[in-house]
Amino acid sequence: MRSGSWLYVVMAGLCQFVLACSPAAEAPQTQAGSAAEAAFTGPIIVAFGDSLFAGYGLEPSQGFAPALERALEAQGVKARVINAGVSGDTTAAGLARLGFTLDGLPRKPDLVIIGLGANDMLRGLSPAQTRANLQAMLEELKRRGIPAALTTMMAAPNLGEDYARAFNPIYGDLSRASGARLYPFFLEGVAGQPGKLLPDGMHPNAQGVEDIARRLAPAVAGDLPKG
């Protein structure tokens, strides 16, 4: 099923879910500041996003951050991926917590992957504000000298063509303007596949997360410092 079609099918359920799943309902499983990160000398990646990054409904070892670590290690890249996902986060909430998340790390990360915007879209928030918030995050990362990447999100078709025309170009436009890497739709190959989703039909299960991590790992590995 095409990702746009999947978004159309699950839109109603997602709208109900995202309003109920506030940041307070699920704290990020962030490992920032831990002794393990302080002692680690390899690349550090921050997965900064919403419930898709936070590992909603999964055991801690099954979330995107540990899955990406395993996928990178399978390619010979020993990296630490820090889970900085918060369920229900909008881009505004992400912007508000970006600074203290980075300040809480034992050292400057080698890459921050931003996976935000889905909740803005599902709530029908202004695409102009979504763009501005993401741009501000990228500018803050650039100011700190931290490489950034964006995972793409798309507007659900039933939000209308005008909304889609304003929302869908955001990620590509910001990538081109900022130099941040652009990764494809996060749920590509998983959306609409019951065997790769939780019973809610929206969030990836452990197998779905593993598939996503394996798909993204080559691009992520290419964005890490060599040597």
Describe this structure in words.
- The chain has 227 residues and is of the alpha/beta class.
- It is built from ten helices and five strands.
- The chain has helices at 3-20, 35-39, 51-54, 64-74, 91-103, 118-122, 127-143, 161-167, 170-178, 206-222; strands at residues 44-49, 80-85, 111-115, 148-151, 181-183.
- Strands 2-1-3-4-5 form a five-stranded parallel beta sheet, sandwiched between helices.
- α5 (91-103) packs parallel to α7 (127-143) and α7 runs parallel beside α9 (170-178).
- It is globular, with a radius of gyration of 16 Å.
- Residues 1-6 and 8-33 have low confidence and may be disordered.
Question: What's the quick description here?
Answer:
By secondary structure, the protein is of the alpha/beta class. Helix content is 47%, strand content 11%. A five-stranded parallel β-sheet has the order 2-1-3-4-5, sandwiched between helices.
